[in-house]
Specification:
Number of helices: 11
Strand order of the largest sheet: 4-10-9-8-7-5-6
Structural class: alpha/beta
Strand content: 5-15%
Radius of gyration: 22 Å
Distance between the termini: 31 Å
Number of strands: 15
Helix content: 25-40%
Order of helices and strands: HEEEHHEHEHEEHEHEEHHEEHEEEH
Bound molecules: pyridoxal-5'-phosphate
Shape: globular
Amino acid sequence: VTDRSDAARLDEVSPLGHTRERFVVPEGVVYLDGNSLGALPVRVAERLGQVVAEEWGEGLIRSWNALPSGAGRWMELSRRVAARIAPLVGADADDVHVGDSTSVSLFKTMVAAARLRPDRRVLVVEPSTFPTDGYVASGVADLLGLELRWCDPADPLAAVDDDVALLSLTHVDFRTGAMYDLPAVTAGAQARRALVQWDLCHSAGAVPVDLAASGADLAVGCTYKYLNGGPGSPAFTWVSPRLQAEARQPITGWMGHASPFAMARDYEPAAGIRHWASGTPPVLALSALDCALEVFADLTMAQVRQASLSLTDLFIRLLDERLPDLDIVTPREHERRGSQVSFRHAQAYGVVQALIARGVIGDFRQIGDDDSSSSGIARFGFAPLYVRHVDVYDAVEHLEAVLAGEEYADPAYSTRNAVT
Ligand SMILES: Cc1ncc(COP(=O)(O)O)c(C=O)c1O
């Protein structure tokens, strides 16, 4: 690719060349932050309007049992959404619960895992994981009197001994985009009788994952990144069918009761994955997510992966050619790369802000504890359903200009925004 028309030709042959029209992408914006907040699918605004006006406004409480349109009922919504997510992560719909935040889902799965291994005292987490995973693990360890052990991200299995109840890892690292070999790590930890949990926030909808075939135990993932469910949309939890009869989640609310409207005094868990529900499902958020997931209905994850690798390959190749001094921290091997590319820079915060000022939206993530420093990682996510090869080309052109003109040094970027 030596000029923009070469990039345009790659878009013509991409298996996802036709899916960008399913999204609202503002004019003049190159959106490389779908790994943080996915773009708005075109049909969601109308659907939400209808849910509010008809299902809530007209149907009122009746919509829990039957919608005014006759198409379904609110009580089924979270099962419907689970059925849309399941094939994207290699799961059966009956093994997926949707409805809490990722953090709450992590709490539920970590407590359940610890209870499944009562003879073991250790939870293993890697130190560079997304902070909420470590924070929740530390809260669970505190609550249950367990030890939290940090592993070497390069060799997590070295920390797994006979005292480990759970190894909890993020499949694709949120800073570097590095991806673990999920089946191999799962098998390695299970050989030591530890349970394995995967955080799929940066995987679901971007890279193929086959939870059932990998034999994993537990997984959680958010839906507001590559699944485009909207800000704060509910997370999903997967529990291996091997464990469901035995596994007990700790937030024993009425929606996970075998018979919520029996209003019984004592808790009796619902059968199967329904036990993982706790409170009233977030109907508006689930409705938006249900509609957003329609964009995947006719796609395979193999197509998504092919398009994603083509985009990240092009970005890396253009950076290598034009900005060879950049410190790219994302693995170059396909099998170790998620759907993002990141580089370190002494002024990474300013670089990202200067790009945003030019309409190229990525983001900045800190490394270490010095939050006064603008050094860190500039991160670019390639959501293959709406990012094109020409966007990659344009982003690199802008990046060259930002670096050549030292636009990152603008004093306006010396104070960080709350969300970076
Ligand atoms: C790997 C990972 N886990 C968890 C979260 C966030 O958790 P929650 O959905 O509870 O905000 C993120 C958010 O970016 C993430 O990247």
